Amino acid sequence: MPTTPRSERLSLAQKLAYGAGDFGPAVAANLLVFFWLPFLTNTVGLAAGIAGSILSISKIWDVVNDPVVGVLTDRTRSRWGRRRPWLLFGAIPFGLAFFAQWLVPFPGNLSASFWYYLALALVFSSLYAVVNLPYTALTPELTDDYDERTSLSNYRFAFSIGGSLISGVTFPLILQQFGERSALAHAVAAGLWAVLSVPPLFWCFLGTRERYQAAPASTIPLIEQLRIAFANRAYLYVVGLYLCSWLAVQLVATVVPYYVSFWMRLSNNWLAGTILAIQGAAFAALFVWNAVSERIDKQKVFYLGMVFLLTALTGLAFLQPGQQNWMIALSVVAGIGVSTVYLIPWSMLPDVIDVDELETGERHEGVFYALLVLLQKVGLALSLLLVGQILQFSGFEGTASQQPDSALLALRAIICPIPAVALLGSLLFAWLYPITREKHQQTLLALKERRQQL
């Protein structure tokens, strides 16, 4: 039986540099998920439904913006490669736009505040695409090895979850230090993380090389490239798996600050502990899941992760005030499951791109990754929109210390039953995913034979 063609192994320094590239975008996305909606409702004073709609509106722009950026990176030509120049020139504007979203320039003027935060959401979302889309598309250009790609994803999400963990814990602790000066507290906390988010993008630029020589980038129209992407059955299953699981995770992350504060009646210190438990467990579990994925297929790893996550969410839905120790324990269990949502879909995608190259004779990394990043944003936008609308419909009032029973019931529904439905959908797509380790080996052998004939 033929053996799998193997590329040269990447060094530890290269893997660390690659992983660092996801630190800044992950920190920014994590803080927006956990704290931006409470900031808009509790500090700025916007109604929950209006606040939730702001980021959702910006995603309409991403439907156009993300695929265009993906195609542009495919067609970029420079002495630094196709992807890395975007990190170099987009890093500082990305950090500035993130910081500006946490300022309160129009206190008490809700109309001006709405337009300000909507404009900043559009600008930040565009700059997020400028740095994150080229970064995610680097994976298949660094190595074509099945296990090395999983290893790269492991390093990526070690930085991603590590950054999310540290930022998620420190952010509420900083807010706690400023007492009632909420606007100043958010500006200080956001300014700190804006500064820390930029240098890792430069590290990624300097420490990686686009070594893998893929087929020439396509010059066919964007619409045709999208048609090719959606004609790839394996890609559609990855899309479904990721959209469902990511939506579930984002729903939970969005409602956690409200759940801890209003249902469990705990302070920001407990919120920091909850985030630490989730992200800390997710970070530690990455290394375990990476080792497991070297022995069994990727979709089976995903099945195991969903067992942990569904168990934890069910427990959180039934917790009562005063059971904070159980809350922390269940958060650890949830983090173990969340880790597979980070790791598995992104390690599947390079394998799908290999199949696409075998079928079409070209590589379309930019479009494939752009669409998946777009879905990542759609999951975030839907979670903010749903949480905002559900809370507003339930009678939630952000500036009130006590909430009606209907709002408290809504918080518990968002913690479990709603995301559970999405997770069951992701399990179906994982079951349908067709690329096993053996099938990927066959694909690489066929690609190797074709390239040798060129």
Verbal overview:
This is Symporter YagG. It comes from Gloeobacter kilaueensis (strain ATCC BAA-2537 / CCAP 1431/1 / ULC 316 / JS1). About 80% of the residues lie in helices and about 0% in strands. Helix 5 (about 110-135) packs antiparallel against helix 15. The model is unreliable at about 1-5 and about 215 (pLDDT under 50). The protein is mainly α and about 450 residues long. It has a single domain, classed as MFS general substrate transporter like domains (Growth Hormone, Chain: A, Up-down Bundle).
Please tell me the CATH architecture by its name.
Up-down Bundle
Number of domains: 1
Radius of gyration (Å): 21 Å
The class by helix and strand makeup works out as mainly alpha
* Helical percentage: over 70%
Count helical runs.
18
Major sheet details: none
Q: Tell me, what is the CATH class?
A: Mainly Alpha
Order of secondary-structure elements: HHHHHHHHHHHHHHHHHH
Strand share of the residues?
Answer: under 5%
Q: Estimate the global geometry from the Cα principal axes.
A: globular
CATH fold-type name = Growth Hormone, Chain: A
Write out the CATH superfamily name. MFS general substrate transporter like domains
The tally of strands reads 0
- Please report the distance between the alpha carbons of the first and last residues: 24 Å
Mean pLDDT: 84
Which spans of ≥5 residues are poorly predicted at pLDDT below 50?
Answer: 1-6, 213-217
Protein name: Symporter YagG
Domain Major facilitator superfamily (MFS) profile: 14-437
Subcellular location: Cell membrane
Keywords: Cell membrane, Membrane, Transmembrane, Transmembrane helix, Transport
